[in-house]
Structure prediction request, 285 residues.
Amino acid sequence: MTTATRWNTPATAPRTLRFGEHTVTWLPDGYVQLDPRRWLPGTTEEDWTGENAGLLDPEGFLAASIGALLIRHGDRAMLVDAGFGPRDVPAADTRPALGALVGGQLPAALDAVGVDPAAIELIAFSHLHGDHFGWALCPGRGLVSPFVNAVFAASAAEWATLPPSKRGPARIRTVADGEEIFPGVTARSTPGHTAGHTSYVLTSGGRRLIAFGDVFHTPAQLARPDWRVAVDALPEGAVAARRALLAELARPGTSAFANHFSDVVFGRLGENAGTPCWEPLEEFY
Ligand SMILES: [Zn+2]
Prediction:
């Protein structure tokens, strides 16, 4: 795969990187096609020509990866988010801003990196949308989660959006802003996309990796945090969250995990002629 196609192709292979005393692994589950003009309704045709044209797949969609971040420390392991689950929804059956929505690969990805789902002790959700909890909560689908020993964590505001009947028998806990939930991993409240949206900050070896969930869906937003996202629950809060996160990402020693950024899910904030941009990373240094 060439470098160019990585920007408009879902990340379909697990990728493990060393991060201080931790290892972090991208675990792909699938992808969703986002119609750029409907997902970001304030954008114009010109916004999707030039540099940003390279973010669109051959059908004209942003190719958003879906998956989970595995964080390992010693013999302990947790996930941030849990994919979409074993479902394949054709474009005709998805919402207007979406094309095809496909999941199913997460267990195979875990297997490929030699981790038993039963060994995952915690799954921390950025928010409770279906493309983030599919293999964990599985409401109403008759699927048994493979994460039989995991505690499921989200903010109180996020749990409030999911009635107890939809949680099934899951062991759940709430996370508060600033709380350490796993060695080196701290919750950071980033409301906007949803009211209880939470990012997770891994600090290890003197560096920080921010798993920012759906604060950003595409690298194009780094230069335009003011663009409204059609599905953001709190549009102004989401703009504020994007601006605050950009300031965080600009700090020295800070990298990020961007679950929806095609095949460039690990990276850091860069600059191109004074404009913020995404700089993919193959290793953290
Ligand atoms: Zn999402």
About this structure: Residues 1 and 281 are 16 Å apart (CA to CA). Residues 9-279 form a domain with the Metallo-beta-lactamase; Chain A fold (CATH 3.60.15.10).
